[in-house]
Structures are given as C-alpha cells and as structure tokens.
Write a structure and sequence with these properties.
single chain; alpha/beta; D-Amino Acid Oxidase, Chain A, domain 2; nine-stranded mixed sheet; seven-stranded mixed sheet; 14 helices; 22 strands; globular; FAD-bd
C-alpha cells in the first residue's frame, strides 16, 4: 500500500554519493530545494574512489567545499611508475600547484560526509535514507515525474512527485533501468578488481603518494589515504572469486606489490567490484537526467571515474538551477547531456582503457587469464576494438612514454591533459554572471 504522496519537489536526486551530493549543493546554492533519496542507511562506507584530479578540485572549489575537503585529504604530489620493484619514472606536481596540487587523496566516504554536512547545514535540502527506488513514471504529468520508493525500514512504499529527477545512483542505476535507458559497452569478463585499505609504511620504503605497479598479473595502484598510515592498494583477480577466497590468497598479491616482503601489515577493508566500460544511450530523457556512474562507468585506473562524475555534477546543478529559476531554456540541459556524454566517449573511456593496458603491460607480456585476448569472449562482449589495441608495438610506446617523463614539461602536460574532460568554462555564459565565468576561466591552466 502506498503512503500519501508528499508535496511535489522541484528536484529529486537518487543517490547520496559525491556526484548526487555535488549536484544537490550546486542546486541548493541557487536556492532550489532538493530532496536526495539514498537506498542505504548511510552514505556508502566501502573503499571506492580516493584520488581527485585538479579539474575535479575546481568543481569542489566552485561548490564551496574544497577547503573542508583539503582538511581531510593528503596532498598527492608525486606519481611513480614501478616495474619489478624498480622505479621507472615519476610525475611531480604541476607548475600551478599553488592553485591545485597534482591531486588530492581523500577516501570517498570522507568526501561524502563533508558534502552531506554542507548540504544539510547550509542549504534548503533533505536526505532520506533507506529509500529503494522501485518505480518511475515520467509520463505522470507534463511537468512532473513520479517516483515510488520502498522504505526498507518500514517496508512501506512511498510515492514522491518532482519536476526533475536526477539519477546519480551508480553503475547499477535504478533510475536508468526504470527509465528504459540502455547502458551500452562492456564489462571486463575475465577479471574483477579489488580495492583494499591497508596499514603499512610504504613511504618508508620509497613509495610516493601515488604509485602504478606495472605487471601483467600482479599490477596495482597504491596511494596514500591519510597521515595515519592508511593506504589504498588496488589490484585484479580472476572473475567470480568471493571475498573470503581473495582474503585467503591476498599475500600472493601483496608480496609482488609491497616494496619489501615478508612484512607485517593490517588489512582494514576489502571491496571487490566488476570493472566496466559502459555509457548510457542518453543522459537526458524528458525530465530524467543521469550523472556519474549512472551515466557512464569506466575502470578506475588513473582516477578518472569519480573525477568525470564530478565534472558532470557541477555543470548539471548550475544548468538545472538556471532552468528552474527561469534564467535558461530547457534546451541547455540537452547541450549538457550531449556534451558530457561526448567527453566520456572521446576521452575518459579511451584513456582509462589505455591506462589499464599500460599497467597490465598488455600486448607484450604474459596474459594467463586472457584478459586482452582477441577471442570469442571478446567478440561476445563487443570489445574487440579495445583488446586489439594491445599489440607488441606497445612495448616501445610505453618505454618512450616513461623516458619522456624525464622532461618536466612532459610531466606538466600529463596533468594538463586531464582538463580535457571538462566543459568549456564559457559553455553557459549567456545565463551566468560574467564574473562567475571569468573566475571559472581563471582556475584553468593557461597552457590549455
């Protein structure tokens, strides 16, 4: 039985992760009341994203949250590439690191908590937990969307009505599925990824704040999470393993990843997940909008997943706020949807796959799981185009890349390249204060 419908909301956002929350903050800053529905009983506490590129920090700054995020973050000032436990190359912070460092490392649950505090304490907004969206009717009225959620605390179904619905509920998005929007692409069929939080003094043994361990089997991304000895150590396993099975063999991974072995360490958390390369067929369907992993999902090597999501969220919040406040036409949302989808398809997807290929040394090393094999499995999953990028010639290409990083200019341009994921800062200048646009432009490297 449905409980009575509350009064209509201007915007409902499904998903209280950083993407949904940044969208909400940007809307609330424009005096648009926001309701956020989250299926869990609290913000997700599992090990997830941890690295925020300068372009993502610009969005945090514009949302007014960066100062608080910095207080909970560790400066990520050097990225090091390792092979056979030998340093191959390094990338230092950018030339304009006085504006944004090369990266900030902050566990996603900490970021989400900061955003929740800002949203609830500074603005007109509400978050309801334990709300599992089970039905969407976008044809309920010309200007409304109806959302039915199951309250998992009371087992009651609650009907909500809104003028605009934003799905920021992750790769398994209920909003996307219930809106009949396809999620095109593929999931890596022969492997799963594992994110672990571990206490060990990597820095004592020469690791920098971020590290790529290049290996065809025991590859890893290792980065510092706080000043108390907590580090993220991510690696790959064969598909279908349970968490208990992974824990049982974790030393077999760690002995190849840690700078010295055997050692004592503390495994704090472990989270297994399936890596994807998928994109929604549209980011807007009527009054339903998708952002973050609900709109696109890529493997996280290189830290482009949540970074790209935050770059969806800020512009979406500002554009939707302008539409609701009568300053911009609805067509602005079509521009946003097409532009953000284009950024993922032309940059994030290909770059994240190339990062994965490089760290796994694909094309010129052993591949016992056949991850990069051009076989029937690849054909079945429509991933032939991508596995065929793993050619023997990549060995020389990778070597040249590492050698090029001896030049500080090339290090700098590696960071600047990340800004390619952003929209042009002038993209909605017709509907914004000129000083706001001028300030946004000032945040970008002048080398773009």
């Amino acid at each position: 039985m449905l409980s009575p419908s509350p009064k209509p909301h201007p915007v409902i956002i499904v998903g209280a992760g950083p993407v949904g929350l940044i969208t909400a903050v940007n809307l609330a800053k424009l005096n648009v009341p926001v309701l956020v529905l989250e299926r869990n009983h609290q913000v997700d506490q599992s090990p997830r994203a941890a690295v925020y590129q300068p372009c993502a920090q610009a969005e945090l700054l514009e949302s007014g949250t960066l100062d608080d995020v910095r207080k909970e973050s560790v400066l990520n000032d050097v990225m090091t590439f390792w092979k056979n436990k030998e340093r191959v190359a390094s990338i230092a912070k950018t030339q304009d690191a006085d504006v944004f460092p090369a990266g900030l490392n902050c566990p996603q649950p900490k970021l989400a908590k900061i955003l929740v505090d800002h949203l609830l304490n500074k603005y007109k907004a509400e978050i309801k937990f334990c709300q599992k969206v089970i039905q969407i009717d976008s044809d309920a009225g010309q200007d409304t969307v109806e959302v039915v959620a199951l309250d998992t605390n009371t087992n009651l179904e609650i009907r909500y009505t809104c003028n605009w619905l934003v799905g920021a509920d992750g790769a398994g998005s209920a909003v996307r599925r219930l809106s009949d929007i396809t999620f095109d692409g593929f999931s890596w069929p022969k492997e799963d990824f594992v994110a672990t939080n571990v206490r060990f003094d990597f820095m004592k043994h020469g690791f920098s704040t971020a590290n790529f361990i290049m290996d065809p089997v025991h590859w890893s991304v290792v980065c510092i999470l706080d000043d108390a000895g907590l580090w993220r150590c991510a690696f790959g396993v064969k598909a279908g393993m349970t968490n208990d099975e992974i824990r049982a063999e974790i030393d077999e991974h760690y002995k190849h990843i840690f700078p010295v072995w055997p050692v004592e360490y503390e495994l704090v958390e472990l989270n297994k997940y399936k890596p994807h390369q998928r994109c929604a067929s549209t980011f807007r369907k009527g009054r339903v909008l998708l952002a973050g992993d609900a709109a696109h999902s890529n493997n996280p090597i290189g830290g482009l997943g949540l970074t790209t999501g935050l770059l969806d969220a800020g512009p979406l919040g500002r554009a939707l706020g302008a539409v609701i406040n009568g300053r911009a036409p609805e067509g602005l949302l079509d521009y946003w949807a097409n532009a953000r989808r284009g950024k993922w398809l032309t940059f994030t997807n290909a770059f994240s796959i190339e990062n994965k290929r490089m760290i796994q040394m694909a094309g010129y090393s052993e591949d016992p799981l056949g991850i990069w094999a051009d076989d029937e499995v690849a054909k079945e999953h429509n991933m032939e185009k991508w596995v065929r990028t793993a050619t023997p010639g990549k060995k020389q290409e990778d070597t040249q890349f590492y050698e090029s990083l001896a030049d500080l200019h090339n290090q700098d341009m590696f960071h600047v390249r990340q800004w390619s994921i952003t929209l042009d800062p002038r993209w909605m200048e017709e509907y914004e204060d000129p000083e706001v646009v001028k300030y946004r432009i000032s945040l970008r490297p002048d080398r773009l």
